[in-house]
Amino acid sequence: MGQIEIITANTAAAIAAKLCRVQVVSAYPITPQTPVTEELAAMVESGDLKAEYITVESEHSALASVVAASQVGARVFTATSANGLLYMHEMLHWAAGSRVPIVMACVNRGVGAPWTILNDQQDTIAQRDTGWIQMYCRNSQEVIDTMIQAYRIAEQIQIPIMVCYDGFILSHASTPVDVPSQDEVDRFLPSLEDRSGIDGKTPMNVNPLILSDPRPDANGVLMPGYMEFRYRLQQDILGSLEAIKSVDNEFRDTFGRSWGGSVWGYRMDDAEHAIVSMGSLASECTVAADQLRREGIKAGVVGVRVYRPFPSSQIIEFLSGVRTATFFEKDVSYGYQGALAMDAKAAMYESKSRPEISSYVVGLGGRDVRPEQLAEATLKCVNGPVQHCWLNVSG
Amino acid sequence: MATTSVKQLPKTEMILPGTRSCAGCGLMLTYRHALKALDEGKTIVAVPASCMTVLHGVYPITPVKVVCINNPFAATGAAASGIVAGLKATGKSDYTVVAFAGDGGTYDIGIQALSGALERGVNFIYICYDNEGYMNTGTQRSSASPMGAVTSTTPILAKLQHKKDMIRIVEAHDLPYIATGSPAFPFDLFDKVKYAKDVLGSRYIEVHAPCPPGWGFPNKDLVKIGKLAVESGIHVLFEIREGRFSLTSQSLVMAKKGRKKNVSDYIKGQTRFKRISGDHLAQLQEFTDRKWNESLERHFRDNP
Fold first, then answer.
1. Do A211 and B83 touch (CB under 8 A)?
2. How far is CA A66 from CA A27, A160, B83, B111, B212, in A?
3. Among all residues of chain B, which has the CA nearest to that of A87?
4. What is the reported pTM?
5. Residue B215 in domain
6. How far is A151 from chain B (nearest CA, A)?
7. If you average pLDDT over every residue of chain B, what do you get?
8. Count of the separate structural domains present in chain B
9. Which residue among A72, A248, A350, B222 is least crowded, i.e. fewest CB within 10 A of its CB?
């Protein structure tokens, strides 16, 4: 049985790493992720967590070291935010290409310049094309649960996962969290099978130079070229939606909680107007939906929990029956629109029935956005589409 | 006991025919003798994007009988740290982790990760094969290129600055073992790698690796150029055990005899120095003499 503790999302992430019995931790402190690194360091130094802790000198090295540790067979963990994540960019591609089951906590923060330490999701959204799975959490309970799920998923399909949660809003806010027991987690997440192939005998050349076309090995067997490896990554990350769903279902059977797989709905059964968002903002959108319902508007919320792979069919399922869909997101693809709205519009093109779609960029660099403002902005879209607007911004 | 004869070297070749390195490659000869000094099956090599990547062959074939983990250019020190931690965490003992990076991956883009690993005292050997430029991308300047060398990014004026003193930077990390080597003196190199294998902590070995296409000398002259580098004092052979500095091999012979060749003897066989000015040559000679004298002073102070 679990135990209720009043903790922040950062503590939840650190506890989850410990419960998952990670063997190598390597991280570089950056606000608002810092407490994760500190708490894990204390766990390792005190002996509560039997792991190697590498106090690296940069985020690039943090990810490089956990990639390598994973390649020799260890279960690994790292965490970062904002510019730290951007500094990892090269290694993000390298990790996905290496097919290592890393889990990384990404504590969402706006990116400089100019400097902000406060929350938006530009940092992780900017990494969407690196071949990682991205999962966005709405509260600290979802953080601890998603971390545990993430190791199962990553190790099943050999693709790294970012567990994303909003800086300060979640990372530094204390809320009650049902912390699973070690026994429960051990039953759900078996220890990592060593697939390193390091046996003291077999030579290997891991991640060597590769040609564009398939090429025979020393025995004449045709082996993949660069593009085949890329195709496999694409197929496997697309296929991971199934694993994400089944792991969430199994998690519900073990722990009694489920997080909707890749997309969750709130009051969507009879909704005519959908509000679509990610992370803690999606949670806040449920308050706006309640308010609209009180005003006689049949509103509901579609929360995107998994942004990569993009859950197109689930999005279509939720949105093909509504009249309007209003997107709120804390990121922008400069020169176009919010990334989530863009992707959802592309998904809806495959659907015969499409809602009027409006999109808002909100809350960049910690700019406050209140539920009643979300409700008001949604109402505007109910009365006619609003093309790519920024909320709460002065000219 | 110092190795003095080829017969004393292990017969096993860890590098089989079919590498992609150039003919007369200084790295190739370095790697061959370094691997002979390490244990077969128990060596894990970390390599950044470099000539070493090319040497290891193109997927799915490799001619080198080790576990080699390739890494992004800047990541070698960090990747080696991760390998060491991962091996320990998964109970794989008795492996020697050896990072093998060029001067670009060491002096320049990799210096941060290297410094981090050395400061943490990661239990590994870092071998820098210094071919004095970005040779894998086609002979661009690095901070290890010597003054007066024409490179493809110093094509007209030649390099205006002296080579960075990487050893001093490495020594600032207070390592238990630091050494220099040369493929032209393979016994000395073999002995140093073999000694380093059994030292605990971070160990650093820098090998001067002549590069025929990059430096502009005939393939057959690899050993000749390597020897001239040592004989002129351009590259000094020494080791630093727990802070104690000792000249070795030919450099020790030169110290005792009090003789060394001129830099002009070393550079004349290399087209990269074809445009060196009189002023640059004088500066290079003065720089070399100063470093050589410092080495002599340290050697005789530590070995009275």
1. no
2. 9, 11, 8, 19, 37
3. B74
4. 0.98
5. yes
6. 17
7. 97
8. 1
9. A350
